[in-house]
From TrEMBL:
Species this protein is from: Pseudonocardia xinjiangensis
Family in the record: Belongs to the F420H(2)-dependent quinone reductase family.
UniProt-recorded name of the protein: Nitroreductase family deazaflavin-dependent oxidoreductase
Catalytic activity: oxidized coenzyme F420-(gamma-L-Glu)(n) + a quinol + H(+) = reduced coenzyme F420-(gamma-L-Glu)(n) + a quinone
Xref: NCBIfam families: hi_GC_TIGR00026
InterPro entries attached to this UniProt entry: F420H2_quin_Rdtase (IPR004378), Split_barrel_FMN-bd (IPR012349)
Domain of life where this protein originates: Bacteria
């Protein structure tokens, strides 16, 4: 198992599926637990917005040129997922893609950059557009798209 790059107390997810997938992915350096509904995932470790404790989540893998994008769709629910608020408050995260871990800086994509990444994400995951549509209908919200870029160290 590869060493963690963020220090702090880890609090496993209260959701058993998330908790079990993250544990399996990390224990096997991404050889197992690396898909969700047949699609590849990454594991993102972030600091909680209120607690300051480490949180982990498996998310769709959208990568281009060493930059990763993650969509805060929450499956099309009316509200943004809790992890989105963590990233906005504490933008330095650890990203694990297979056995490779790196520190990244999160920021919300906007404008033409956002549209370019959304088009790319929709090519990889055609269902992503319907999640965004559902979020707009149920919560009258635009799904944030977050870019994870390598930190300057």
């Amino acid at each position: 198992m590869t060493k963690n790059l963020l220090d702090g107390e880890y609090v496993p997810s209260s959701d058993a599926t998330t908790r079990d997938q993250v544990e399996l992915y990390e224990r096997t350096d991404g050889r197992e637990g690396a898909t969700m509904q047949g699609n590849p995932v990454i594991v993102v470790t972030m600091r909680g917005a209120r607690s300051g404790k480490l949180r982990k989540v498996a998310l769709m893998r959208i990568e281009r040129g060493g930059v990763y994008a993650i969509g805060a769709s929450a499956g099309g629910q009316a509200r943004n997922p809790g992890w989105f608020h963590n990233l906005v408050t504490n933008p330095t995260v650890q990203l694990q893609d297979g056995p490779d871990r790196s520190l990244m800086t999160a920021r919300v994509a906007e404008g033409a950059e956002r549209e370019s990444w959304l088009a790319y994400a929709d090519e990889l995951y055609p269902f992503f557009a319907s999640m965004r549509d559902r979020a707009a209908e149920t919560g009258n919200r635009e799904v944030p798209l977050i870019l994870l870029e390598p930190t300057g160290n």
